[in-house]
Amino acid sequence: DLEVADKIKEDIFSGKYPVGTMLPTENELEEMFQVSKITVRKAIELLATDEYVEKKSGRGTTVVSNRPYNRLSKAASFTQILENSQHTVHKETLELKKITLKKDHPLFASFGSTAVCFKRLYYLNDRPYIYFTHYLPSDLLEIKRKVFDEESLYRLLTQKGYAIDSFADDFSAVFLTKDEREILKTTSEIAIKRTRQSKTHLGKTI
Q1: What is the per-residue pLDDT across 89-118, written as a single tens digit (0 to 9) for each?
Q2: In whole angstroms, what is the distance from residue 91 CA to residue 30 CA?
Q3: Segment (H or E) for 99
Q4: Four-point Cα dihedral 164, 169, 174, 177, nearest 10
Q5: Inside any domain, residue 152
Q6: Which one, of 190, 167, 163, lies nearest residue 177 by Cα?
Q7: pLDDT higher than 70, residue 201
Q8: What is the CATH number of the domain that holds 138?
Q9: Is the dihedral of CA 148, 64, 45, 133 positive or negative?
Q10: DSSP bridge pairs for 63
Q11: Domain of 18?
Q12: Within this chain, do residues 47 and 138 fall inside the same structural domain, yes or no?
């Protein structure tokens, strides 16, 4: 399956399967590589984990990245790792709105006078686990909330022309507010906070 995944990856890099197009069906890949359906599925799973393709039930497999060094795959999200495990993971959109930023706001230099505030809660085995607050370019509000509910945020950014080239993470211990404790359904007062700043190849924050 690793050999099959590497061959498909080479075909993606060479342009045989451009970004946005569909890979051949499982049956077609079985014929091409003369392997079993299980081997094909495992190869697709490997490519999906590295964020080169996205598989949707009943709709086939779409190529979403053609970068030989897929930066996002080298920092596979913790939520993605959980989703690929035996745990049950689901997400809930808590808030999606446009916000106004004053000139003295820390985000003003990155986004200007307006931005999108997107809050999402991840559940692990039906218990609140990770609480995300994203600040995004204001034109992402053109995307319907239903799409935000279903799609990967990285995928939505790419579709709007914001390709993440690099990111920097900062971790700190913080005191949870009363609202945050209620959202996370916890009595713990302290949590680990990750602050991530993502940039395009031109250095623009997204």
Answers
A1: 788 999 999 999 999 999 999 899 999 999
A2: 34
A3: strand 89-100
A4: 0
A5: yes
A6: 190
A7: yes
A8: 3.40.1410.10
A9: negative
A10: 53
A11: 2-63
A12: no
